[in-house]
Amino acid sequence: MAENSSVKSRQSNMELLRIVAMLMIITLHYLDKGNVLPEFAQMSAPNHYLAWFVEALCYTAVNLYVLISGYFLCTSKFTFKKLFLLWIQIIFYSWIIGGIFLLTGMAGEGATSIYELIFIAFPVTAGHYWFATVYVLLFCVFPFVNAGVAKMNKKQHRACMVMLLVVFSLWNTVLPMTIPMADNEGMDIAWFITVYIVAAYLRKYPEDMKHKRWVYVAGYFLLCGVTFISGILLVYVDGIVGKLGGYATNWYAYNSLPVLLASVCLFIAFIKTDIKNIKFGKVINMISGATFGVYLIHEHRYMRYLWPQWLGVEQNSDKPWMILHLLGSVLLVFAIGTIIELVRKWLFGLVTNRMWFDSIFKKIAGIEEKVNGDAS
Questions:
Q1: pTM of the entire structure?
Q2: 98, 168, 103, 85: which is closest to 126 by C-alpha?
Q3: Is residue 110 predicted with pLDDT exceeding 60?
Q4: What angle do CA 281, 199, 166 make, to 5 degrees?
Q5: Which long-range contacts (CB under 8 A, 24 or more apart) does 323-331 make?
Q6: 93, exposed or middle or buried, with CB in 10 Å at 0-12, 13-18, 19+?
Q7: Cα 73 to the chain's mean position, in Å?
Q8: Are the CB atoms for 335 and 23 separated by under 8 Å?
Q9: DSSP 8-65
Q10: Tens digit of pLDDT for each residue in 186-228?
């Protein structure tokens, strides 16, 4: 019993981090789509500096999600049922929210063009939500990544990580003025696989996470500070020599090395956090299961710029209480999205939790075995 409780505790730690990461994502959208962030070189008011520092603190969010996914998926099996449920969840919100906006006329002019309708009708393949599209692709390839990881020894795994980080992170972090081999600021499958392999390493070799939790927490804040201060320094140097102002926010990217290292530090800090209260853990697990739905709701094509207007984000961006408005708005969006997603999960569960539904996927179990490498 003690061992099972320990497992649940560790999982609750990761699920709590999933919630924190989603709150960070909403914060990023609040700052960006709410027009709170001025050009970095044009910062003048205290709120401008505060907003860009909060941006640095939250830029770890996407990496955290991929780290959590990699940490669990590296020991999991691919199933078509999970892929189907993931895909249908994305379609559900794209169609339902899109349909409401189109039928009520809230979508605005041009919303019925073929180009716009394709995004709504085929959200995964059209890239309606960039993160959802790349995550679905990651889910499709993770068993093959696992097969490669399983064959590596520790030295090979380290070498693999170093090579991928040099190509997809270090190059653009240190030499942004050159043309990198591949760079979409971390919004692509190459970066997701890179972060996945880092997570798999941490899962396989926990002995390398040898420092105390406070060290990793301090590392997270220090590295986020480096991202923020680097921009200020570049703006200062640009004022002297010119030509560098455009690189002030270069480290504000998911694949910048400081952002990745900050993500890893916070991730390890949560691994080292114990949640001993079982009831609290159950609440965390329930809420965390709704986080992806929260993302799909508030980041819908028709919603992403509208909810900041409803909440008066830009109007409060220069007020002394801006940070309180940010916290309240983020929590409100998260709470409403969570309630909606929990209702959706309950409704879908009336179908997906039935034996006949599982039997559909049992018919293709042989294909799953081949994908997972279990077939002879």
A1: 0.93
A2: 98
A3: yes
A4: 150
A5: 323/50, 323/54, 326/27, 326/30, 326/31, 326/36, 326/54, 329/30, 330/23, 330/26, 330/27, 330/30, 331/23
A6: buried
A7: 15
A8: no
A9: HHHHHHHHHHHHHHHHHHHHHHHHHHTT-PPPGGG--SHHHHHHHHHHHHHTTHHHHH
A10: 899 999 999 999 999 999 999 999 999 999 999 999 999 999 9
Residue 33: Cβ-neighbour burial (10 angstroms; 0-12, 13-18, 19+): buried
Q: Is there a contact between 94 and 128 (Cβ–Cβ < 8 Å)?
A: yes
Question: For residues 304 and 308, what is the distance between their CA atoms, to the nearest angstrom?
Answer: 8
Helix (H, G, I), strand (E, B) or coil at 274: coil
Q: How many CA atoms lie within 13 Å of 16's alpha carbon, on the beta-carbon side?
A: 22
Q: Quick: pLDDT tens for 303-336.
A: 999 999 999 999 999 999 999 999 999 999 999 9
Tell me the per-residue pLDDT of 353-364, one tens digit each, with 9 for 90 and over.
Answer: 899 888 988 888
How many residues appear in the chain?
A: 376
Using DSSP, how many helices (H) and how many strands (E) does the chain show?
Answer: 18, 0
